Amino acid sequence: MPHTTSILPPSSVIGVVGLGYVGLPLVLAYANKGFSVIGFDIDDSKIVHLHAGTSYIKHISSEHVGAARASGKLDATSDFSRIKECDSIILCVPTPLDEHLEPDLSFVTDTLDAVVPHLRAGQILSLESTTYPGTTEEEVVTRVEAAGFTVGESLFVVYSPEREDPGNPRFAATNIPKVVGGHTPACLAAGCALYGAAFDQVVPVSSTQVAELSKLLENIYRSVNIGLINELKIAADRMGIDIWEVIRAASTKPFGFTPFYPGPGLGGHCIPIDPFYLTWKAREFGVHTRFIELAGQINRSMPEYVVHRSMEALNARGKAVNGSRVLLMGLAYKANVDDMRESPTFTLMDRFSELGAEVTYHDPHVPVVGPTREHQNWAGTRSVELSAETLAAADCVVIATHHAAFDLELLAAHASLIVDTRNAMAGVATRHGQVVKA
Predict the structure, then answer these.
(1) Is 86 among the catalytic positions?
(2) 199 and 307: one domain?
């Protein structure tokens, strides 16, 4: 029966395709609301974990997964023929860039090719992957219609951008407002019913294109402002001004200012990637998004700036980077998570290594480097122990991520040179000239 009512029947079965940082929280959210959920993934190790009731993502507890599994509401499989068992299917697969900074929709299209043959009348199909405006219409709707369905009547297509912020203690899945756009009014009603069953607030918009662009705007906003503060950091450094003190002072203004913070580059699955989805699509309409592209260029150049500052600091101590022992602290792209996707630390590792340095890293959240698309040469590399001996042996320690687990007092006591990209050492007693900000 078509899902055109505003309430999702409690007997509905929810399918979630892609069980990563976005998909797994969704699975748990619907299971906690009492819905039967089937998780789909081509990675069999994730299926094994979920069947055992254990988590494979650090900030999601095994207790949470185990409770969902014990309730009988959570199943997981790599068998896409089971799509037909689901009343709603939510696609949460990656949308990376290729080597030319152009959209790579292969995960989306491959997933659709696996899902569409098993669709049946009355289902809701939702795409959550971040992408350019028009993707849902061009890639999802066309495939569904080619399979013989009438979108808005026999099958309902929606787009609802994910808004996960891994490791954020205040916001997790269901208490983040959920933007929903439908291909038709009936699709929108179905999408609102689907997400209203698990999320505290649903924000309906007039089309899938509006929903797609809203997600890009959120991340472009951050990318552009981070690019601005990164550029200001370089200018402030040249002027001998502490940009972090400048930000603190400006933040006292109670209106018209939102603080953004510099760093060694951008990481994660959104901000380094999503703006380029819009710049690519905009060219189709004869629009050159110079502002967005400039911010991307600045942010992508920041690892090189950190390396340059490190080289200057080593030179001031009579050491060349060639042959120096460089310890990078933090492989995850942000504090207190195990997510290393697009982490600028990889670029730092590559660049220091190319310059002849002996490179190691320490990250309690990432004990070993797993497989990555762009940095296969580091796969299997293990985090070194943070000890007095390790720190004393390093010619340069670069703080790339500010994890709460780092013992900064130990660092101050034993490291001869600290290059701090995150202002992590603020408030820690250090020796004169020991810390260089970058």
Answers:
(1) no
(2) no
